[in-house]
Amino acid sequence: MKKLYLLLPLLAVHFAFAQNSQRYYSGTFLNEKKKPQNFLKIFNKNTGVHELTDERGFAIIAAKEYDTLVWNNGKNIQVVHGVYELKYILERQIKKESVKNINSKDYENQIEPSEVDDFSIQKSYDSLRKNSDRNFSSVRKLKYKSDSLYKIKNQPRKYLVFNGSFSTSLDIKNRNRIPHTQSRYVQGRSENGFLVWKGPETGEMFSFGPDISTLGFNGQPYEYDFNGQLVGLSNVISLATAYNNNIFKTTAGYSNQLNMNAIIKSDGNEDARLSVNIGQRKDQMYFEDQFDVVNSFKAKFSTKILNFNINAGFNYEENKATNTNRIGLFNRAYQNSLLTPISFSNQQNTYLNNGLQRSYSVNADNPDFLFKQENKYNYYENVRQLNFDVSRHWNGFKLNVSQAYDNQDIMHRDVYKPSTNGFINGLYNRRDQKNEFYNSNILASYELHGGDLTNKFSLNHILNNRKVNINHSLDKNYFYQRTSQDYIFNYNLDFENYNNDIEFGVNLGNSFYTSNTSLKNNFWLPKANGYFTFTDIFNWNNTDFQLVGAYTQLSAEPEIAKSYSSYATTQFSAQNSHLYFPLKEVETFNNLSNINIKEWKTGFKFIVNYKMNLTAEYFNRRTSDDVFPVFEGQNLVLKNLADHTYKGYEVNFNYDRIISNYQFSLSSKASFFKYRDVVDRVKSGYNNLMISGFNDVYKILSEGQVLGAVMGIYYERNSEGKLIIDDLGYPLKAKGLKIIADPTPDFVMKFSHNITYKMFALDVNWEWKKGGQIWNGTQAVLDYYGRSQSSAEDRNIKNYVFQGVNSNGNINQIPVDFYNPNQTVGENRWTRYGFLGVSENYVEKADYIRINDITLSAYFDVGNFRRVLGVSFYINNIFLWQANNGVDSDQNFYDFDNSRGLDFFNLPSFKTFGCTVSFKF
Question: Which residues make Cβ contacts (< 8 Å) with residue 885, sequence separation at least 6?
Fold first, then answer.
């Protein structure tokens, strides 16, 4: 009978809801610096199982489809997709090679008899002696004693093994694309029909002065310029040239890591292992003298005592940085470098004779002045982690007890020196944060086998105790404490029969969540998930079709170690952003309702010959009572304000070993992702709440709209959508604000290609994002001050007529000059609407194509060691095409989370060239 099961999926998808409990997930996990790291603790929140990564960041962990993995103390979360049998995962780690033909003397002798050789080894008088080690099962050493005598030494039953690895890498970084600025017009404005240069002492901010080619230096003493003041060509000593105020440099960083293992073995089995990892890393920013240094020490000990597996570990990490961007320091320096007129050099000097900063205006800053500091490091972080695990397996019963303690000290020294714009007397604040985290995880499970059925029952108890103490020298102390408990009950059923064409599994469970900070504990958090697999469909060997589905309810609370002080940007307009200095922390995390999540997923997986697989998934996640920060008076508080639904679908196609032989192989992966997050409900009185940005352009929480849509100023239009033109011939700015941009992309596609040839491997990863919008506030401000390339190119346009209608509905026919010297500077095309112009006019597409990374690796045999030396060359962000005129649209506003869609002097992304050399011993 043909295996046609096309009608069964419709019935099966709601029947089965979990992955095989005997399957595993494998992958490379990155630390908070997005680097592979040894001893990262990967925790399966659904089952309580955890594993530690190796020196390459690789780990194998028991998991099912749609389980949730967390690491980096919960900062990184991943939903599992793609689980396999352990045998299959291990086999994939071994490079497969075809057997080569072997030609040997013995083989040739078999097919062609040779003449007898009296001097052959068969006639040798050499002998072996094993007098000192008569009873041995393995050879440790073969020693030459005399002309014809060799001595064999026995491998002892218990022995000590040392091994390890060392890796070193060098990174060279440079900035990616930034906006184009003009290099033609100097600082100044129009006066009495003429374009006039106005020096820094006048406080001038605009670059609407004369063409630099019409000016020169007079050579007279002038503390703002070594060459003197700018004058007409008739009185010059030397011609004026445009100064370059670029603050970006090509910088280099490095990383070294040493990993050592001491292993006690007996009869080939491992009795105990001690692993030590020592590392140092220096990350250099693309700003000169801005860097951070990380030193780390990690140790792990594992052994077995009385059938108990015991693991203990200690991690220490120290991180020091010249500065962080907590107060927007880097954005501030970047903004002032772009706005500095071409007639002023920031590099000539940092201070004036009176000790105040030397800048192109009293209302601006010199980036070099901002970066000068008394202390070498204004940021310190110390992290100490202890963990201890013990487990025991017997007669189908498993018990695992895990304990972990983290102690973190974090210090920010935020400094603005006297004469800084907005802080004329200077400002100093020291922010100290101390975190104490304790985690206890107890997992008990019992597995019962009965024929083709496997039943597994498990009970997991998770206890988290977290304390956070924050102190600002300019503000009060803040203390938060939370003790939460998770009780997770699970029942898992798997059916697997190699003589049958159907496999299925179902997982049912319920969780309790209790917390001392929650307004109400939750004792009903059910889940049901499963799979239904048809093997060898249509009589095609190794061709499987699997249906999967899942329903999960979760309860969560805001992370108490996270600071919400950056929300203070909403207290300022964009023009007053130089006054931003975050101090206020959240008053309390107590008495908030839980953030409740209901999520369901359904999809399928089609596998052909274990080389090709296609997976598709539809997901729908509804979040109720989500928490957002708001200001009440001078206090920053959290409130349960909104429900929203995040839904979409994801399709993945993998083709391993498209071409494969003993020397060459080719594999490729592709994924398609589409999503939308829409606000369903907003608490009364909080609709249209600002969630990030400034108070004149911001991301919004609005019922019925996409979460994080951008609100800003717009043009007035008639009922037909035509621009309304005012009496002066310019489009009319509307009153109030409206939604002007949606940052949500239409879709995102990612591609990965792997090519191996002999000892070489090439990996290429790239992506394409289609759709989505971004507000380019950087361009708006550059236009306003006359520093943009477009304002330089268009300022001489005359008699331009804007398309639109006047207030009477007639077609506009009023010509305008974009920049008329007979008018004041505030009346030109770019300044008449104010600092941000009309926000709607600066909404741009956020499409891009980028090559994320290219890596070329080679592994070499050294002596008797196989593939012991590895060399990798890599390039990150080498290519970036984008539709907008600003920096990388994936960069965040002031480096804040969940702030994409706003570009206000966002920092450019890195372009990195690097090399890594690793050696195993």
Answer: 179, 180, 776, 779, 844
pLDDT higher at 499 or 880: 880
Which band of pLDDT confidence, cut at 50, 70 and 90, is reported for residue 154? low
Q: How confident is the model at residue 115 (pLDDT cuts 50, 70, 90)?
A: very low
Q: How far is residue 483's CA from residue 914's CA, in Å, rounded to a whole number? A: 44
DSSP characters over 442-488: EEEEEEEEETTEEEEEEEEEEEEEEEEEEEETTS-EEEEEEEEEEEE
pLDDT-derived band of residue 666, with 50, 70 and 90 as boundaries? very high
CA distance 1 to 432: 72
701/677 Cα distance (integer angstroms): 11
Q: Please name the residues in contact with 511: beta carbons below 8 A apart, sequence gap of 6 or more.
A: 486, 487, 488, 489, 525, 526, 527, 553, 554, 555
Residue 47's domain comprises 16-92
Number of domains observed in the structure of the chain: 1
CA distance 367 to 349: 11
Instruction: Give the pLDDT confidence score for residue 114 in this predicted structure.
Output: 44
Tell which residue, 300, 296, 259, has the closest CA to residue 280. Answer: 296
**Residue that is written with structure tokens 């780390």 in the block:** 296
DSSP for residue 734:
P
Which of 31-45, 690-704, 735-749 shows the lowest mean pLDDT across its residues?
31-45
Q: What is the residue type of 3?
A: K
Nearest-angstrom CA–CA distance, 580 and 326: 11
Indicate whether 23 belongs to any domain.
yes
Backbone angles phi, psi at 347, to 5 degrees: -80, -15
Identify residue 512 by its one-letter amino acid code. Answer: F
Structure tokens, 226: 């070594």
CB proximity list for 586: less than 8 A, separation 6 or greater? 478, 480, 564, 629, 636, 637, 638
- Please indicate, yes or no, if residue 74 is contained in any of the structural domains: yes
- Does 484 reside within a domain? no
919: left (phi over 0), alpha (psi -120 to 50) or beta: beta
Per-residue confidence band for 385, with pLDDT thresholds at 50, 70 and 90: very high
d(CA 2, CA 716): 67
What pTM was computed for the model?
0.82
pLDDT tens digit sequence for 545-570: 999 999 999 999 999 999 999 999 99
With respect to residue 436, please indicate whether it lies within any of the assigned structural domains.
no
Which tokens in the block code for residue 227? 């060459």
The confidence band for 8, taking pLDDT boundaries of 50, 70 and 90, is very low
> How far apart are alpha carbons 417 and 311 in whole angstroms?
50
- Helix-helix angle 329-339:777-785, to 10 degrees: 40
Residue tagged 């083989």 (tokens): 107
Q: Which positions ≥6 away from 355 have C-beta within 8 Å?
A: none
